[in-house]
């Protein structure tokens, strides 16, 4: 067992103490165990029946293993239930956050990430193409049905924006930084779009 982990996780520390007591009990002569066992269990019982919430994955696993291994002796006992609750208390920290709608800044960040992710993936897959690698788009891989499933109107599928937050979270995006950059970035983007629209309008007028 990792000593640093056992020192920081109260569940591991408690189970270490419990197992040490069990080892001492098993090493004693049979006629010298009952009174010792009773006094030792009286000392440990309150802590065992009020096991603290695990503070690490190792602690949560150890708590569940204890509950499983000791269920014959502690079936439906407060100790068994307490260790199950201890493990669940830690594991519930991993519940996914409630879904939310991405902000415009987060969608722009997602768009930027997708662009660079594809460029870097293409460079990794087709190094012989150099800077032209990103121009090659595979077809028929089986992934097209994720956007265009057979027999389903594509407009009825979840939009790309619904995947922005989960993907950004999965790759470790800094949401605070995205939020702090949003005003400047969105202002620059709006100006760029306006300039682009004016150029298109000029070109259309020139073509008439």
Task: Explain the overall architecture.
It is built from nine helices and no strands. It is mostly helical and 208 residues long. Helix 7 crosses helix 8 and helix 7 packs across helix 9. The longest helix has 33 residues.
Radius of gyration over alpha carbons? 30 Å
Give the beta-strand count.
0
Q: What is the distance, rounded to the nearest whole angstrom, between the alpha carbons of the first and last residues? A: 79 Å
Overall domain count:
2
State the helicity in percent bands. Answer: 55-70%
Spans of 5+ residues with little confidence (pLDDT < 50)? Answer: 1-6
Order of helices and strands: HHHHHHHHH
Largest sheet: none
Counting DSSP H or I runs of 4 or more residues, the number of helices is 9
Mean pLDDT: 84
Shape: elongated
Summary?
With 208 residues, this protein is mainly alpha-helical. The protein is built from 9 helices and no strands.
SSE topology sketch:
Blueprint: H1 3-8, H2 10-27, H3 34-49, H4 57-69, H5 71-74, H6 78-91, H7 104-125, H8 164-170, H9 175-207
Helix pairs in contact: 2-3, 2-4, 4-6, 7-8, 7-9
What distinguishing features does this structure have?
64% helix; disordered N terminus; 208 residues; 2 domains; mainly alpha
